[in-house]
Design goal:
Length: 90
C-alpha cells in the first residue's frame, strides 16, 4: 500500500470524487466498499478490479483530527494513472 496523501475533506467526499472520476474515464461501474459504518472508511476499486484483492483507493479517517488519509493498493499493472485521479480529489 502506498500513501497518496491526506486531506481535510471527509472520507465520504473523497470516495465519491474518486469513484466519479474513474467511472467517467472508464465508462464502467466502479465498485466501492464501506469498511467502517457511515462511509467513515471506504475502498474504491479501479474499474475492472474486484474485491477483496483488486487495485483500490483506500480512504481512512485521519490518524488525528478531522480529515482523511488516502492510500492506493496496487494489483499488477492496474492503477498506474489512478493515483493522479486520487490526488485530484484530495
Amino acid at each position: 500500500m502506498q500513501q497518496v496523501g491526506t486531506s481535510q475533506k471527509a472520507p465520504k467526499a473523497i470516495a465519491q470524487c474518486v469513484a466519479q472520476k474513474w467511472a467517467d474515464k472508464s465508462q464502467q461501474q466502479v465498485v466501492s466498499q464501506d469498511t467502517l459504518a457511515n462511509d467513515q472508511a471506504v475502498d474504491i476499486y479501479v474499474p475492472g478490479q474486484q474485491p477483496p484483492s483488486g487495485a483500490a483507493a483506500v480512504v481512512r479517517p485521519a490518524w488525528s483530527g478531522p480529515g482523511s488519509w488516502v492510500g492506493f493498493r496496487a494489483s499488477g499493472a492496474a492503477g498506474s494513472e489512478a493515483t493522479g485521479d486520487i490526488q485530484a480529489c484530495l
